[in-house]
Design brief:
Structural class: mainly beta
CATH class: Mainly Beta
Strand order of the largest sheet: 4-3-2-1-5
Shape: globular
CATH architecture: Roll
Number of domains: 1
Number of strands: 5
Number of helices: 1
CATH topology: SH3 type barrels
Helix content: 10-25%
Strand content: 35-45%
């Protein structure tokens, strides 16, 4: 991923994301702490309680992780939440 392509990642800072890496692996459901700052060549993630700094060149894609679902949530409540987030057309 180029540094220019990281600009939209700033919108995901502080959120849970999934990250696809150039080697074909993925890091799922981690927190994006910092997408990129001038002079830095890394992205800061918080993964399972550990700070991880990935080289920008190692990242292929990044997208917001789906919100966790409470197993006690009724189907009606889940649909209402999806509608509130604009996930249901």
């Amino acid at each position: 991923m180029t540094i220019e392509a990281l600009s939209p990642m700033h919108l995901l800072e502080g959120r849970h994301v999934n990250v696809a890496l150039r080697d074909g692996s993925r890091i799922d459901d981690c927190q994006l702490v910092s997408a990129h700052r001038p002079g830095a060549q890394t992205v800061w993630l918080f993964v399972d309680g550990i700070d991880v700094f990935l080289p920008v060149a190692a990242i292929v894609a990044c997208w917001e992780a789906a919100p966790a679902v409470n197993p006690r949530t009724t189907q009606t409540e889940a649909i209402s939440r999806r509608e509130a987030y604009g996930l249901v057309p």
